[in-house]
Each structure stands twice: as C-alpha cells, then as structure tokens.
Amino acid sequence: MPATTAIITILAALLLGAMSPGPSFVIVARNAIGLSRGDGLATALGMGIGGVFFSGIALLGLYTLLATVEWLYVSLKVAGGLYLVYLAVKIWRGAAQPLAFDAAQRAAANPRKSFWIGLSTQLSNPKTAVYYGSIFAALLPQHPPLWSYFALPPAIFAIEAGWYTVVALCFSSRRPRDIYLRGKKWIDRVAATAVAALGLRLILTAHKAGI
C-alpha cells in the first residue's frame, strides 16, 4: 500500500472511531446541551489536543519497534482488526439504546473547565489509546516517509476537534439534535458496518507484506 494511501486510510479509520458513540461523544454533547455552545466547542478542542498526544505516542513508539520485529507488525495488524470488529459489534448492539443526558445537571458556562474536561476524558480513556495503537500498527508502513510525521498530527487534530465541533454545534441546536436522536439507530449501524469492514480487511490481509 503506498504511503499516501495508508495515511488517508489511517485518517479515515480515526474519523470513524471518533464518530462512534463513546465517553467523548457523550461529554461533548452533554456540555453543549447542559452548559453552552462555547463549552461544547472548548470540550471539542480538548478532544483534539488529546488526539494529537496519542498520535505522537503511536508515531514515535511503534515505528522503531515495528521496523525491527516483523512478526509483531503482522500480529498487531490482526489484533487491530479484531479490535475494530469488536468495536463494530458494540456499536451495533448499542445503536438502539437512547443516549442518556442528565438534563438536571446544568451549571454556569466555563469554557476553560470544559476544555480540561475534554482533554482529560480523551487521555484517560484506555480504549482511545488502544484504538490509536491498533490503527497505526495495522496501517502505518514499516518505513513511513518523513513528511508523514509532520502531516499526521495536525490532520488528526483537525479530525478529532473538527468532528466534536460538529457534535457541539449540532447538540447546541435543537433541530439537528432531534434529527440525530431520531435516526440514531441506523446512523450508528452504518458506522458499525464500515468499522467492521475495515477490521475484516486488516485480518484477511495481515499476511501480506507491505500492507
């Protein structure tokens, strides 16, 4: 797989991961609904910074290891694929469950506090770390070009912060929020299908060199 294609695939996989329901999604949505639009946007910014942190760890830690241990590279591709399938099943099963927002917990707007809540939520979520590690191990070439080290962090920030900005804007507006909540079941299941397809592809192509 060419390096450019691999990078694009990594970014697409991370976007799907960000879009999947989880603690980060709920925190951003809750702050946007229960506090203010500004709090939701500040929380989204924290999520973006957390994504950059995980991408830096993945880039610096996995490259040296995977360049010298080929069997581990293949094993992590399989593990990454299995995790994606597991995540897809979890998203599918939870698609019919309504999102739980505690409307009673309303407080004064505090964007600075919301930023730190978003950042700490992202950094303290072990599933986020596993997801980043799995994606990078599975898709990043063993010898990535130098430009990828400079291109990936800002692109990942744009994906994480950008997606959660959309979430904050939507959930601070009544009509988009109602549309999502009405279509949540099928929206989540479409996302689950896409994640599962990527995971199966990683498993089935793990034995091929250069993927």
- Quaternary organization: single chain
**How many whole angstroms does the radius of gyration measure?**
18 Å
Which structural category do the helix and sheet elements fall into?
mainly alpha
What's the order of the H and E elements? HHHHHHHH
The number of helices is 8
The overall number of domains is 1
Termini separation: 5 Å
Got a strand count? 0
Parts with pLDDT < 50 across at least 5 consecutive residues: 102-106
Q: Averaged pLDDT, please?
A: 77
What portion of the residues fall into strands of 2 or more residues? under 5%
Percent of residues in helices comes to over 70%
Shape, per Cα inertia axes: globular
* Major sheet description: none
Strand and helix map with partners:
Blueprint lengths: L2 H17 L3 H12 L2 H32 L1 H25 L16 H13 L2 H14 L6 H26 L2 H31 L7
Give structural notes.
The chain has 211 residues and is mostly helical. It has one domain. Helices cover 81% and strands 0% of the residues. The protein has 8 helices and no strands. It has helices spanning 3-19, 23-34, 37-68, 70-94, 111-123, 126-139, 146-171, 174-204. Residues 102-106 have low confidence and may be disordered.
Q: What are its keywords?
A:
mainly alpha, 211 residues, 8 helices
Quick summary:
This protein has helices at residues 3-19, 23-34, 37-68, 70-94, 111-123, 126-139, 146-171, 174-204. With 211 residues, it is mainly α.
